[in-house]
TrEMBL record:
Xref: InterPro entries: Fatty_acid_hydroxylase, Sterol_Desaturase_Related
Domain Fatty acid hydroxylase: 147-283
Localization (cell): Membrane
Protein's name according to its UniProt entry: Fatty acid hydroxylase domain-containing protein
PANTHER family found in the cross-reference section: STEROL DESATURASE
Taxonomic path: Eukaryota, Fungi, Dikarya, Basidiomycota, Agaricomycotina
Pfam families: FA_hydroxylase
GO CC entries: membrane
Record keywords: Membrane, Transmembrane, Transmembrane helix
One record GO biological process: lipid biosynthetic process
Region (Disordered): 321-342
GO MF terms, alphabetically ordered: iron ion binding; oxidoreductase activity
Keyword set includes Membrane: yes
């Protein structure tokens, strides 16, 4: 079995097994590949087993992106200058809380996500998803596919999330995620392993369903989608609303302001990426009423009024949480006609 160094990516991954290359990439013109595609080929050939290569890359990608995106928010939380944009400035996460979240997230990743990831390659190929193959799809096709995944995940998450707010599902599963009324980046995946499994289905379910309809999806596209989804989840839990935050550019984007209210009020704002479902089904009425009252206040009174409103929201949220744990109430919508402002 002959081995030599690859002309594509010399010294990137050590020795390149030409027999494996011929097996995985018959009739492939390596000279026609871009740098990223050559890296992709080198990874799969270096590992030698596509199942292991895909599983390992999937797990490493998730860990690096998730914790890598959390680090900037951890730094920002330690710098007082940024408190002017913090939605709940008096509630800064402590080091103990961050470490608690980190341990819980790692436990969830290793007990729930790691087994899923190792079984993903055969399942993906069964559904028709390309994994080790090159070249990659066009950026235009990838953009369309990722947009579809965002829409599907947002719909799935909305209804699954609302279900997790009722009775035993909340008490035994979702309550863990609501431990912090003022969320922070690391708390994005601070959740019961079963919740990670349930809501994660919306993230990976879109690509798998897409494969049933069309055979042109590549796992590289899925990786881009998962990266963007992780950025969205961490940013939504960051607790900061900057003037340049995406919700001020895209009006229907959810963002931290939208999701922070959910953690305070316990109800309202169940969506992840977009505000559509909450608006259509009336589950943003408390949020819109609060925003309307604050906007109507005189500038000199606005800060004090907003603080008073948020304190009221949090008190009502605690009451709604207690009702949900007992399987009682109307999900915190008592006294509020559906779709109407208070």
């Amino acid at each position: 079995m002959a081995t030599s160094y690859v002309p594509l990516l010399t010294n990137h991954f050590g020795q390149f097994n030409q027999t494996k290359a011929a097996d995985l990439y018959p009739d492939t013109d390596f000279d026609g590949l871009n740098v990223l595609e050559r890296l992709w080929v080198s990874w799969y050939v270096w590992i030698g087993n596509p199942v292991i290569a895909t599983g390992l890359m999937s797990f490493l990608l998730h860990e690096v992106v998730y914790f890598g995106r959390c680090i900037p928010w951890m730094i920002i939380d330690r710098i007082p200058y940024f408190r002017q944009w913090k939605l709940q400035p008096e509630k800064v996460p402590t080091k103990a809380q961050m470490w608690k979240c980190t341990k819980a997230v790692l436990f969830s990743h290793f007990t729930i996500e790691l087994p899923q990831i190792w079984g993903f390659h055969p399942l993906a190929e069964y559904f028709g998803l390309a994994t080790h193959q090159v070249p990659f799809p066009s950026w235009k096709l990838m953009a369309i596919q990722i947009a579809m995944f965002f829409v599907f995940e947002d719909m799935f998450h909305y209804f699954a999330h609302r279900a997790l707010h009722y009775g035993p599902l909340y008490k035994h599963i979702h309550k863990m995620h609501h431990e912090y009324a003022a969320p922070f980046g690391l708390a994005a995946e601070y959740a019961h392993p079963l919740e990670v499994l349930i809501l994660g289905t919306g993230t990976i379910g879109g690509p798998l369903l897409y494969c049933l309809a069309r055979p042109d999806l590549h796992i590289f596209t899925v990786y881009v989608w998962v990266t963007l989804r992780l950025f969205q989840a961490v940013d939504a839990h960051s607790g900061y609303d900057f003037p340049w935050s995406l919700q001020h550019i895209i009006p229907f984007w959810s963002g931290a302001d939208h999701h922070d209210f959910h953690h305070m009020a316990f109800v309202n704002n169940y969506s992840t990426s977009f505000r559509w479902w909450d608006h259509m089904l009336g589950t943003d009425n408390k949020y819109r009423a609060y925003k309307k009252r604050v906007a109507a206040a005189r500038p000199e009174e606005r800060v004090a009024l907003e603080k008073k409103e948020l304190e009221k929201v949090e008190r009502e949220g605690l009451k709604a949480e207690r009702l949900a744990e007992r399987g009682a109430g109307k999900g915190g919508m008592e006294g509020v006609p559906k779709g109407k402002l208070e």
